[in-house]
Amino acid sequence: MTARLAYVPAIAAALRDHGIAVVAGAHGLGLRATARKAVEADREIWELDGDGHAHGCLAGFEPLALQLLDEAERHHPALVAAHEQSLKRLWPRRDSSAYALPRDLTSTSVRDERTRFYHHEYQNKLLVGLAEFMLAVLAVRRQAVVVVIDNAERLPPTSRSLLAVLRRLQERSARLPGRTCCLQCVLLERGDANGLNGSHTGCNADHDTGRSTGQHAGCDTRRSTDHSAGGGTGSFVDCNNGGDTGRAAKHITDPVTIRIAPLTLAEFEAATDLVHLTPFQRETVYRQSGGNPATCRVLATCLGHDLGKAATLPVTTVIDLYLGTLDMARRRDLARDWVASSCQGDLIAQRNAATLPAAELDELHHAAHVAAWQRHTAGQGPLVLVHALAIRDPLRRLQALVEPCDVLMGIGLYDTWFDFFAELFSSDVLRRQGSGDDAINGLFINAAFVLYAMGYTAAALALLDDFLTTFPASRFVPTALYAQSMTYGRYQVPVDLPAAEDCAVRNLRLIAEQFADHPRHTYIKVFAENAYAYIKARQGKFDEALALCEHGIAEIVSAYGEDQFQLHRSILIYNTSQVYELVNDLERAERRLRTAIACDPFYAEYYNDLGNLLSRSHGREDEALDAYARAIALSPPYYEAHVNRGMLRAELGDVEGAAADFERALVIKPAEWRAFRELGNLRLVAGDAAGALAAYDAALQIEAHDADLLANAAVAASELGDSALAIRHCQAALAIDPRHANARDNLAAELAALSSPDSVQRYFHLTEEQDAAD
Q1: What are the entry keywords (predicted)?
Q2: How far does the chain reach from its first CA to its final CA, in angstroms?
């Protein structure tokens, strides 16, 4: 199909003005040719397929990204090294001569020993790292690229998130002098007038946060912890600060959608070979085809010389009648071609596959899935799910998905996982399949870990309860009870420590009774004790928590030596350090933390926590800054470490460095409200009350329940003379923390300034009552 020239100016304008255009229309209407015509001549065009099931979790972008990686390895290895932590996690089977750092134990441990998995926010860090790498390579190439993504309605969630990050980063970059958009996208969203093809899902528009800057004595100086890994035998300090659920201020313009209409009759006749038909017959075929030449070609195949006569039935019916004229050998050939093309083809092939016996298609798809999986494990192709997902037998489909789900979990791409797995997860029948010891049963337990780390605790607990009832003797019971205890004691809001303790105690009793002869008994027991230690720490029983951790470390080494279970041992040591820090034994905390680092020297979170620990000791600020710098160097874009370093820099008077860290945190995570708060604090100290209040307002749009933030916003409002706003913020802060001294003092000052002695007296009376109650 040739380009639809009437639509070219609109597409070109959308690319010029927004860097992205959505072109929507059915197959056969010339979308790709039209998009190609709209691209400026000096632009390099990449035509890619966005179908995530057929082309992997980064469909629409992965071939370009890998090509840029190849180029950078040859010509700009420093760019690869600068972004290697993101690149080697997204492509764990691909090595590079440009990589400068070894992998941490999370990446190198065998699957059975991997007791740490990535927090759900980790994906955003990876995608920011990938997007920055791609844009950096394109910038040094000095040639703009346009990616034309076909089947964009099938983009996987990970690709949609990458697209949003690319748009956001380029929108920010465009504000700088001399910077232009080096990567543009045309999304071809396909639909089918006959209802046989995919659906229109729209483009996932991202929201940017406005930049306002704005410090007040008494502001919160708590350090942030990393979200890069969680669950498993994860850290004691609860680092689940929530996802990117809020948006502040500024909204990136939604992409323009250009809808390609069906052809007019004249255009249709020019695009099809229907000259042998009468005008009446041509018009009849035109209407039956919906003005789509591709549908016309299908009808011509099905009807042959009868095309001009048999035009009264729906297209699907015509196809079914045609398929009825074919022998089964021909239909099986069509089906094999359909599967080999990753389920791409015309309406005849699609309908043929849908109407063949399920068992026959399942065999073809299973064989294709095995071949695709072997290519992926050999590093020769993306993670292809189309064949596994096309298997109609639910149990067989679930079995085919075990290994791909493990890959997605290992990278942290949970949204893409649940995009296809949620339907299977919701099936009571499938959750009860297997012996309880099978790989599919372990898949559901892994799903529970991911769900509670993502905040879906109700779904995780329901699954775990069901599993424990259905499979009380399963080898996964200790893992399920561990997950339950962590869900109740760490991730559920509010936590339920008695329920968490009950699960942990039951787990230890069961391990002693049923797993005493297991070859990995010590490991399983120590794994469970770690959850119990976490609960003890949350209960304030620090001596018991420490005893459990120290005993576990000794048992692991005694049973397995120094070389096995290094990841779990490093986590136990790290947890011990955190308990020592909680009881303010900073010397032992540091000693233990450095031992954990020696076990896993390339894991960024340990260095971030070391920076937090050292920042509490006077005279060790430079060491803390070095630790934060190491954490940032070791991690994909690490916004927590930037926030923490920025806060320390602010305390040391390095305003410029602090502001740079907070701004960098907001590039990585636009809804990081602490960075807005700290920028507000900087502006307030600098005397810019208006800038401070703007930054505080941006933070409050995301997090409205932080007493320090509200109290500081009240100070800014007071300095601007807005007493009503200052009083509201003070009252809101005191509702959260009735003992907040700054909020009390500021509220009293505002009431006094209003010349209302009765109000001031009433306020002090209420606070005295509150103090007495406390």
Answers
A1: Repeat, TPR repeat
A2: 77
CA 671 – CA 310 distance, rounded (Å): 59
Q: Which two tokens stand for residue 116?
A: 């740490």
Cβ contacts of 416 within 8 Å, gap of 6 or more: 52, 57, 156, 157, 158, 408
Long-range contacts formed by 93-97: CB under 8 A, 24+ apart: 93/376, 93/377, 93/378, 93/379, 94/379, 96/69, 97/73
488: enclosing H helix or E strand: none
SS3 percent helix, strand, coil of the chain, rounded to 5, is: 65, 5, 30
Confirm if 405 and 440 have CB atoms less than 8 A apart: no
Tell me the CATH number for domain 5-105+117-203+255-259: 3.40.50
Map out the domains of the chain as residue ranges.
5-105+117-203+255-259, 265-356, 684-774
Q: How far apart are CA 336 and CA 610, in angstroms?
A: 57
Give per-residue pLDDT as tens, 105-156. 888 887 777 767 788 889 999 999 999 999 999 999 888 899 999 999 999 9
Superfamily of domain 684-774 in the CATH hierarchy: Tetratricopeptide repeat domain (1.25.40.10)
| Distance of alpha carbon 4 from the chain centroid | 37
Amino acid present at 320: D
The pTM of this model reads 0.89
DSSP string, 401-455: HHHHHHHHHHHT-HHHHHHHHHHHHT-HHHHT-S-SSSHHHHHHHHHHHHHHHHT
Helix residue spans in 304-393 (DSSP H): 315-323, 328-340, 347-355, 358-377, 386-390
Amino acid at 749: A
Give SS3 for 492: coil
The Cα–Cα gap between 229 and 631 comes to 14
Residue 19: phi, psi to the nearest 5? 80, 0
Indicate whether 772 pLDDT > 70: no
Task: Return d(Cα 154, Cα 161) in angstroms, integer.
Answer: 13
Q: Which residues contact 456 (CB under 8 A, 6 or more apart)?
A: none
Q: Is the pLDDT of residue 670 over 80?
A: yes
Say which residue the tokens 């190849």 belong to: 70
Measured in whole angstroms, how far is the alpha carbon of residue 390 from the centre of its chain? 25
Beta-bridge mates of residue 48: 149
For the residues 306-315, what does the mean pLDDT come to?
Answer: 78
* Nearest alpha-carbon partner for 143 in 176, 171, 184: 184
CA distance 661 to 640: 10
Residue 636: asked if its preceding bond is cis (omega within 30°), the reply is no
| Rounded Cα distance, 186 and 255, in Å | 10
* pLDDT(467) > 60: yes
Sign of CA dihedral 380, 381, 385, 388: negative
Q: pLDDT for 57-113, tens place per residue?
A: 999 999 999 999 999 999 999 999 999 999 999 999 899 999 999 999 888 887 777
Q: How far is CA 539 from CA 490, 542, 552, 582, 725, in A?
A: 12, 8, 19, 12, 39
In whole angstroms, give the CA distance from residue 707 to residue 494: 19
pLDDT recorded at residue 225? 62
Rounded CA gap, 403 and 643, in Å? 37
Give residue 242's pLDDT band: very low, low, confident or very high (50, 70, 90): very low
**Comparison of pLDDT for 623 and 1, the residue scoring more:** 623
N residues, the chain: 774
Determine how many CB atoms are found less than 10 A away from the CB of residue 83: 23
Yes or no: say if 57 and 383 are a contact pair by the CB < 8 Å rule: yes
Mean pLDDT of 638-643: 97
Question: Rounded to the nearest 5°, which phi and psi values hold at 633?
Answer: -70, -30
User: pLDDT confidence of 199, banded at 50, 70, 90?
Assistant: very low
